[in-house]
Amino acid sequence: MSREIVQELTFFTHSVLMGVVITFVYDWLRVLRRLFKHGTALVSLEDLLFWFACGIGVFYMLYRENDGTLRWFAVLGAAIGMFFYKMVVRDAFVDIMSTCLHKIMWFVFRVLQIVLKPIKCLVYAEKTFVLFTGRKLKKCKNFIKKRLTVFIKTVRMVLCKR
User: Fold this and answer.
1) Is 7 contained in some domain?
2) 83 in a domain, yes or no?
3) Which residues contact 73 (CB under 8 A, 6 or more apart)?
């Protein structure tokens, strides 16, 4: 085979791989969207940033492989790569990864709850103690205030009589 044909086949293969990589990365975005609920605005922003990054990646590949000129068989190769990935993987990857990561996150949160339970109990006990002490200090303050008021009234009465 001539050198040009090998170079064109390499370029086409890289285009197909670029399509597979783009679809694979987008599937990871879909997994994250299943794990953490997103609003419409955030999904739109993520998609915009994703496709902007993909555009930069495709441009870099075209620049490096083909001196920046757009060749339609490169677009066709990327589309074939995306289609091939979707036919082989389908939605199984997103389902499996989101389920696995959800279970891992559930396990980690459960372990954290168990580990942090003594600290939670200490915080509750401290809060209860502070509230109890605050109530007692308020009662003590009110008692002292009443006694001082009575004392001041008594002193006034004594001074007024003289």
Assistant:
1) yes
2) yes
3) 12, 15
